[in-house]
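REQUEST ID: PR-0412
SUBMITTED BY: lab tech R.K.
PRIORITY: routine
TASK: structure prediction, single protein chain
INPUT:
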Amino acid sequence: MPKSVRTFSIFIASSLVLIAGCHKGPQQGVVATVNGHPIFQTDVDKAYTNQLATNPQQQVPTPDQADSLRLNIIHAQILEAILDQRAAKQGLTATDAEVEAKLAEMKAPYTEEQFQAKLKTANLTLDELKREIRRNLTQEKLLNKEINSRITVTDLDVRNYYDAHKADFNLIEPAYHLAQIIVTDQGNAQSGNLQNNKATSAEDARKKIQAIKTRIDSGEDFGELAANFSEDTGNNQNGGDMGFLPESQLKSLPVVYAAITKLNAGQTTDIIPKVDPTTHKPVAYAIFKLISKDAAGQRQYDDPRVQQSIRQQLHESRAQLLQAAYREMLIDQAKVENFFAEQVFKRGAQ
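STATUS: complete
OUTPUT:
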């Protein structure tokens, strides 16, 4: 598994510090500022309209629901601005050439018609995709410098982990080391992911899993996306790592087994729906990554794959801790004025 780079592009449910000190008031059309950088009403309105459009069957939001959605959108845009400013200050913003190179890499496996169809399915324009690519590349640079460069996993760390978990590496039959990302349409369920991000309807779930698949295809780290967006509380905080699944267990899921056995290590499946046997409609979606396939028997410590697996798991755990601290540090250091939040509070407190 490659080194994890924690993605901060969307933290809709993050706790943001809203500095509501003395100020002269917002400029016309500005809903918030981040270190003096404006966030415009027009951008929030566009994002709001796009989110409603992804679920046309949803009832028209009440005024309170509409305000809540706009608050979430503004929160996400505030954090994006904080990260963009941090990267720009350090000269880490992705260049046009880097964006075009990544775009060409993404388009290479497809004809132009196929690529345009994928954009349409993901509800993205080419310009929107380029902005996402630039943001992801920029954040990758930033986080490589300020987080991954600070993580050290020693040989002693790896050895101690193996000695404490040796039984986990004893396989009685062939096993597949998998990771997964799951999205469901159960709006009342807990997400458990870093962003507390949860699909709230069948259409929302379909849109969300497609957006995740697009980001995987664009080169984003699978474990990062699992930690931030997967709705499986059992393993999303471990980058979606499911450990080793016995072949017999995997065969009990014929569709999943068929998809997994077509992969090479490091590859991911297409989106796999889980269908309700009564309604015959999808109730959840999953994407799996094959980390490795192992034969039966005790995996010894001197097996490079064992050491690499442990090293990556320890690296991922430490990256999550550092990323959480880093996020809070940046929020604390920023001067944020959320005028829209102040307006909502004043209306509700009257």
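NOTES: The first strand starts at residue 30 and ends at 34.
REVIEWED BY: pending
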